Amino acid sequence: MGIIGKNKKSAVRCVLVYIIVTVGLLMFLYAYTNSYNKMNPEKIVPAMLTVSAEKAEFEIIGREIEFDLEFFKPESKLFLVLYLMSDIEIRAETAVLTRTASVLQHSLNVLSFRHGSC
Length: 118
Description:
alpha+beta, three-stranded antiparallel sheet, flat
């Protein structure tokens, strides 16, 4: 068996180890949450992500982590630097996603206006 066969085996082993570790962590997370909820009146969720315009909140087992999203707005300097350093494919995807988001937001505004006037 040549080098290609060894590389495939190594890649498959890495993927299997990743899947086993990820599933194990998820099982631990759900078991901890389940036992905590049975013993305490205050209930917690395993994980929750809340995204608003200014920040993203990630809650895992009752602990919150907040991320400021001001740096990732298209108007920020960091966004401009990252955009200019990126490949052309990423720039095209960013343009499509930004355009799609603005069209969807406009459609939602129109629908909510129509629904509100009924």
